[in-house]
């Protein structure tokens, strides 16, 4: 085994991979959020459908989808390996153990939070990504160009109370996951400085609240507007 593979298979190397893939997935969240803000435009979904068509047909974006899937799988796998390794090192808990005294709740439940997010992603992809890529959507014409009406699918889904509930709960889990993961990634990469670390932690806390909140606002917006107030 080469020094490179030995390094990546060590605990430090695996933490490095979790950190790198985590920051990569965070960048995807930002891009995904900015694109989905088209849902709030009062144009009958035209802007969102044009955006969705671009994301589904642009060759660079389609190539990056494979990179994104690889990033997800690697992040999940390395996190699972680290968790199992930590459990094997300490198979029996201490007689006196108060983890809440030196760690926050999110850091102690990253596995649970990640599982909730993973289940949501599977449901979310099945509901939106599969129809968008493999057919099953009605068509719509925007400026004399035919597009798949993914906006209609989004609105229909966000009229279902249990799907809205799952979506919002998943965003809460995402917020807690980001709260620990963001600052932990920088710490793992050795980017600690008495001057900059507090700013990173503050931005991480801000990011972990705002991004999931805006995502959660999307289903709540349509459900309240079209179902509750109609």
UniProtKB/TrEMBL annotation:
GO terms for cellular component: membrane. Signal peptide: none annotated. Keywords: Membrane, Transmembrane, Transmembrane helix. The chain crosses the membrane at residues 16-40, 60-80, 110-129, 160-179, 200-224. This is Succinate dehydrogenase. It comes from the Bacteria. It comes from Rufibacter radiotolerans.
């Amino acid at each position: 085994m080469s020094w490179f593979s030995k390094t990546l298979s060590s605990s430090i190397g695996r933490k490095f991979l979790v950190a790198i893939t985590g920051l990569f997935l965070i960048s995807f969240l930002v891009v995904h959020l900015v694109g989905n803000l088209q849902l709030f435009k009062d144009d009958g979904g035209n802007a969102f459908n044009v955006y969705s068509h671009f994301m589904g047909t642009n060759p660079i974006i389609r190539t990056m989808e494979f990179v994104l899937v690889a990033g997800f799988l690697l992040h999940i796998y390395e996190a699972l390996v680290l968790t199992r390794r930590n459990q094997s090192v300490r198979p029996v808990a201490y007689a006196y153990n108060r983890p809440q005294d030196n760690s926050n709740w999110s850091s102690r439940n990253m596995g649970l939070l990640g599982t909730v997010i993973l289940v949501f992603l599977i449901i979310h992809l099945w509901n939106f990504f599969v129809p968008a890529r493999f057919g099953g959507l009605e068509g719509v014409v925007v400026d004399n160009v035919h597009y798949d009406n993914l906006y209609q699918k989004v609105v229909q889904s966000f009229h279902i109370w249990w799907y809205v509930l799952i979506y919002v709960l998943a965003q809460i889990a995402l917020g807690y996951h980001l709260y620990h993961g963001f600052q932990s990634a920088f710490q793992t990469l050795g980017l600690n400085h008495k001057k900059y670390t507090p700013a990173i932690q503050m931005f991480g806390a801000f990011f972990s609240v705002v991004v999931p909140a805006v995502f959660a606002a999307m289903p709540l917006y349509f459900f309240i507007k079209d179902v509750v107030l109609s």
